[in-house]
Input
Amino acid sequence: MKILKYLFLLALLSLVALSVFVATQKGDFTIERSKVINSPRNTVYNYINDFRNFEDFESSAVEDPTMRMSFPSKTIGNGATFSWEGNEGKGNAITLKTKEGESIQQKMNFDGTQADVNWTFKDTLAGKTKVTWKAKGTMSFLFKIYTSINGGSDNVIGTMYEKSLVNIDKNLDKILEFK
Output
């Protein structure tokens, strides 16, 4: 019985130590990923500017078949919004400002983790587009725990962005094939 008591105490102290460690970690993050997409700039911009397309390219949505996305009547341009709920949590996003064919600024909230999101679109050679996806924000305590266990915010969010950018490229290739 004494051994169980000591094991419980050890587990409790480990939990407290982990909580203190996570609480003292930096909660701010800045993540940026870029990819050259094999489509013209306006095509890429229009695709990303419509929140309805997020369920087809955003890696969490692609990997979680139970994710439910809700779309109001406005999903494109300034003031567009959407929300989602899935196995890993729930969140919402709003488009704050767009510059036709050049940039999109959004605000996202995911279970208390908030981020200012910026997309930029640049022409490259041969009609391709360099897309840069950048997020700057503050993590919730639970997300700090999750990222601490999984290699940090750059690894967790950055990997999600990389997969999503690959999905954008694949989806637009398919769309252009059918035209």
